[in-house]
Input
Amino acid sequence: MLTATEIGIDLGTANTLVYSKNKGIALNEPSVVAIDRDTRKVLAVGHEAKEMIGKTPGNIVAIRPLKDGVIADYDITTEMIKQVMKMAAKKIGLTIRKPNVVVCTPSGATSVERRAIHDAVKQAGAKNVHIIEEPVAAALGAGLPVDEPVANVVVDIGGGTTEVAIISFGGVVASHSIRVAGDRLDDDIVQYVRKAFNVLIGERTAERIKIEIGYALVDHDEMTMEVRGRDLVTGLPKTVSLTSTEIRDAIKESLNHILEAIRATLEDCPAELSGDIVDRGVILSGGGALINGMQDWIGSEIFVPVHIAPSPLESVAIGTGKALKFIDRLQPAIR
Ligand code: ADP
Ligand code: MG
Output
């Protein structure tokens, strides 16, 4: 059996992807781990665990071990990485033993947070760990010429963080990272439904609402959607009908925070690179790039062309994969 010796990992707040040099994307699973609270035993990882969120008996809890782009629960993150490497190996029919790993960290991560990611991957079985900044990986994955002395602007809207970066000559020239992204929009929707209807909905339902009828701040043909939750007054299940217009209003403030981060980064752009941005525009990646109307809305606000990466949910993983080719030139591992 062949051994995969070099892999890329996109350790996202919402989704974890594994890239193998010879097989491409080997795995794409939600960053969720179901554990037995009493024994701390891991019961499921990925899709299987995500299905359990909010539905399990008291002693089984579904945990998202990463929060805001960084590790919130170290042991469970390590266990999750171990499991996803195993699952990836099985899926592509290779063994993954002591691999060299390229993993990304948000550009806003502190050195302690970076070290935690490095150590967790190492503890999960990696031989060497190389770290790449997430926006650089996203840009590489989207096929931008990051090594050239031109401005490449990437807006990666993930689950926990939105990272905006201007990359030129292989490095980050200016960046902003904010802890407002897909999860926050879900949360806005939960809060809105509670306030407006006195009904509590789960986070998975909120995510479905966002994906189906969530719009950026653009005009659109109004849509409606019926969802179920628990009536906070009677305690009984209740169905409510939501419109895309009210959801757009519910997520408006968070969307504006994302826009502000983009504006702030563009303002930090060195003058010599500004012309490139006007010509080449901005590229959106991450799941948040798929919000209905996002491309048009941002374009109308910043007056430069806005593009969506070819596979926004996979850009970072593809980028870590491309980085495997110049692994020697990457920022040396911490130890
Ligand atoms: P991370 O890198 O943090 O793991 P991802 O780039 O995988 O995040 O994006 C996950 C986020 O994108 C989640 O908040 C998810 O709800 C959101 N998302 C995924 N698909 C869509 C879609 N079609 N429309 C809107 N949001 C989406
Ligand atoms: Mg990501």
In short: The chain has a mean pLDDT of 93. The longest strand covers residues 95-105. The CA atoms of residues 65 and 101 lie 20 Å apart. The radius of gyration is 20 Å.
